[in-house]
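Consider the following input, taken from an annotated entry for Anaphase-promoting complex subunit 2 (Brassica carinata).
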Amino acid sequence: MMGSSVCNLGILETLSDDAIVEITESYDGLFTTVESLIAGDSSVVEEQELVSHVTTLCKYGLASLVRDHFLSSLQQAFDKGGASTFWLHFDDFRHKQHTDYGEEIHQALCGALEEISIEKQFLEKCLSILIRALQSSGESHNSDAERVQLFSRFRSMLSSTLMTTLPHHFPEILHWYFKEKLEELSAIMNSEDDDTEQLESDGMDLDDKLRSKNGEMDVDQGFSRHDDLVKNIGKVVRDLRSIGFTSMAENAYASAIFLLLKAKVHDLAGDDYRTSVLGSIKEWIQTVPLQFLNALLSYLGDSGTTPSGLTSPLASCPSPSFSKLVTPSEGIVRWKLRLEYFAYETLQDLRIAKLFEIIVDYPESSPAIEDLKQCLEYTGQHSKLVESFISSLKYRLLTAGASTNDILHQYVSTIKALRAIDPAGVFLEAVGEPIRDYLRGRKDTIKCIVTMLTDGSGGGNANGSGNPGDSLLEELMRDEESQENVGFDDDFHTDDKQAWINASRWEPDPVEADPLKGSLSQRKVDILGMLVDIIGSKEQLVNEYRVMLAEKLLNKTDYDIDTEIRTVELLKIHFGEASMQRCEIMLNDLIDSKRVNTNIKKASQTGTELGESELSVDILTSTILSTNFWPPIQDEPLVLPGPIDKLLSDYANRYHEIKTPRKLLWKKNLGTVKLELQFEDRAMEFTVSPTHAAIIMQFQEKKSWNSMDLAAATGIPIDVLNRRVNLWISKGVLRETRGRETNGNVYTLVESISDSGKNESEELLGGDEESERSIASVEDQLRKEMTIYEKFIMGMLTNFGSMALERIHNTLKMFCVADPSYDKSLQQLQSFLSGLVSEEKLEFRDGMYLLKK
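Applying the prediction step yields:
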């Protein structure tokens, strides 16, 4: 007869009638016996009958028919009983919120799994009876293979039956069951940590503490408080596996672990950027999830040997919780890698989302930057940082409401912070581009950069090495010197061994790197260079600094220029001596002025006695300028009082005697004057400009002046006078009243506080006095220099109709070669053309300039 597992029904055609009758009777008997067996009414007699019927059917090659019928009967019985009953336990949770599950979910799940496990064991027992019957019939020559095959088919049938009737809310039930249990386990572990800390404070021996905390990691021994909980969870997982829900169970407790880990990362990270949290997160991973997983896998029998070479690249500081785990299993190592990657990615996303605030607090937030650096090194998601931070910059910083100074300080902090993350500056280039583009469109960018570089407010060095009085320029120079030069050494000064080490450490540039910037190994971040790049050329920055330096020097009341000398020396290092030559001459002028002023005062001490109305040269301190090397100086007409004018003449004569044939040409509107004003009931001291002093000194002759007469006496244009006199009105020294003539306001000296009535012209006091500059600004100088090219530009636009900025620039360079030749930059030309547009001489449409119609 056939021993094949395939049922050959074609053999029935060759059988006799008696054989067919025998097969029919045996099959009917098999059907009845199987029903009785599955119903639980089996006895020794029925098992013997089953063996007899199976033997008869196998004799005619119908063994596979017997197996299929038996398994089909088991499936029908399980479908009617076990599966439907199992899902009934979870009907009450169909419309419940997960917050209302509580302990009911544990009872329902454990009860359902216990019932279905009993049902499954009974059906497996029935299947074992069939296997023995097949062995008795001689059909099964390999009993072990027969058992494995039938039980595999049975479990697949059982699992498919459950999966086809799976309620949609059951995976969510599993997820929240494991979540609640893991939260409970975490709370127990935290309490054990608190107990351990208490034991440490009590001086308990280290080995005793570890034994008290860890036990032996064998849940059957029950050495620690959390073992019972792990055992209950493990039993649920084991029962779920037994009914074919292995993947669903692992996904459920894995998602719960990751959810708990995410909550822990959020809790530890928070909004405190001054503390590193990565170490605490890694320690918590080893203390709670991995300890749970190790116990769970041990309970399930999944512990294996560690594969060679499979270690976590992040396991740099093992936790005491694993002191007993000499060799972690392969499953634990893989779980460790998964959890650490998830933790790094979660912390990275948190820090990237708050990167703007972190950089605002830099360098105090350096620990958060260091955490982010480690996360990015592991995840490699630098592009996410670039995209997110650029978006934050556009919405929070690059707006009309943000001052240029704030944007620049944030830009410098961004450079410092991202340099710590990316020393080569690859991603800094991408992040800084929108800031640079935006700053180039602001008129005060150059002035703010120079002010930030040279004032004494300090820049806040990332290493904490900045001194309170240092300028950002000094800090950047010091920071640049302290940068490590690894990778930037001259090849000629590197021996063969070091060269081989450097070559072995070589890595290709990231794909985001700009090939025009040079190789990563030959590039370093230059903060000062990046600030200059915003302006476009170092010449513009130097010119702006020269104007600012001139203004600062002219406003000095002494000759203390140590800070300015130090700044110029630092700028010479970066921009070269030729660029700073004029600034050096300006400083030398002050040094020479101090020496000349001392010599003149010494000579005056041996001179003739002063008359009654004459003033001593000792009260005068002068600054003597080499005009050709200074920026254009603002000049205003001013008639000084007689004694002051004579004092200046005497000083100039003595200078001529000392410095023959040189002569002084006074800029009478520049400088400062210290005044003491005596009134009937008070005395007041002021430090003001010569123009303000000349105005108030006219009130020594008479107590009241109208604006016309006062302007004529001081030589000041009336519009300038009306602005300057506001200082004395605001200080309560003068009172203004409306005169009879148009614009002929009357100014009266206030002798006593009781006389200081309310001014009739309140509108004149509505705003602060306009700040006056001694030196023409760079914009004013540029406008004056570019005026000679205005006719050329108008002629070009008349002939060509409309022209782009680049074409106008190239045409001027080509044709304006005579003295003075055209030597302006594209940005300077654009600034001048924008001024012509604002004056409505030109129009700007679609990137083209054309004449205003």
